[in-house]
Amino acid sequence: MNQLQAEIAQEITRAGPMNMARFMELALYHPALGYYRSPNLIIGKSGDFYTSVSVGSCFGELLARRFICWATALQHGSFQIVELAAHNGQLASDILHFLRTTAPSFYEQVTYTICEPRENYRIVQRQTLAEFSRKVEWHTIETLPQIRGVIFSNELFDALPARLFRYFKQERLFREIGVGLSSEGKLDFVTLSKTCAVRPPFDREVPDQLPDGFFFEISETGNALYENLSQKLKYGYLLTIDYGFLQEEIQQMGKLTLRAYHNHHLTSDILANPGEQDITRTINFTELLQIGERDGLKTEFFTSQERFLMDTLTLSQSINLLLPEGPSLIGQLKTLTNPQHLGSKFRVLLQSRF
């Protein structure tokens, strides 16, 4: 039992079983022991998982191309780019390098904001982006002003704490699943006494075909964040890139979508070694889409990363931006768009307000 596991067990002993959102909050974001707080966290070949950013600079360059296309179409002069949870700042660096080199006039007009609440990450980001110190500013969600441009996130929402629910077909109701202690004192899944009164995520009756034991998650943190972002967008785009599906697709999966990764391998025990393995979930993009539309955003499209990136290349050609050259960039593009790798694994939701 590691130190964080012992602390979680102590909290359960003191306060009773915790919901999954609380467990994820501790396992991933504990101030000293959480997985994403670790100074030794490595993303890429030597870490626990790959991201589109860890493939190379191509992903950032493609996003920069899309931002140039949007700004060109809007013709409003200044353009704000807001990145959420920029990790080590590498994606911001890739975007800004491309803008400075390829579109210097646009680069001079653009403002780049990183929305990052964690000071340990801000320190690393400032180091990575030292050469762009006059171009980049930092905010929290609370201090973020109204934005005219684009607010975007890449692989953020799948790592936010979420509550876990299970469907009991005979009773036709959902019960919340949490984390308690087994008779041996180990962390274990338990059914919490409280039941769901509104049968989320369904607006009306539960579908007859919904299987017994169907699991789903609700991230109250993620939904509140998305609503906040949609309200911060005064004019422009809200871009979300993440691992997830629409609600209908998740219903068809019919299985637990919470996952844990260590050394690029899916682990069977989500509760094991908290703070030492990554925990992610499948995003319900239907929830985010509906939140945005309730706040007056228009859904432009929901598509695969492959389609989004290839369409970006086509659009950038229309404004005379040259295609990526060199075996390294071409190889990265193939990885990013390969349906067997990152191309279909990640989805892209774009909403707007004009």
What attributes does this structure have?
16 strands; globular; single chain; alpha/beta; 354 residues
List the topology elements.
Layout: H1 3-15, E1 18-19, H2 20-29, H3 52-55, H4 58-74, E2 79-84, H5 90-102, H6 104-109, E3 110-115, H7 119-128, E4 136-139, E5 147-154, E6 163-168, E7 173-181, E8 187-195, E9 215-218, H8 220-232, E10 233-245, H9 247-253, E11 259-262, E12 265-267, E13 278-280, E14 283-284, H10 285-294, E15 298-304, H11 305-318, H12 327-337, E16 346-353
Can you characterise this structure?
The chain is α/β, with parallel strands linked by helices and 354 residues long. It has 12 helices and 16 strands. It has helices at 3-15, 20-29, 52-55, 58-74, 90-102, 104-109, 119-128, 220-232, 247-253, 285-294, 305-318, 327-337; strands at residues 18-19, 79-84, 110-115, 136-139, 147-154, 163-168, 173-181, 187-195, 215-218, 233-245, 259-262, 265-267, 278-280, 283-284, 298-304, 346-353. The strands form 3 sheets. Strands 2, 3, 4, 5, 10, 14, 15 and 16 form an 8-stranded mixed sheet that branches. Strands 1, 6, 7, 8 and 9 form a 5-stranded antiparallel sheet that branches. It starts with a helix and ends with a strand.
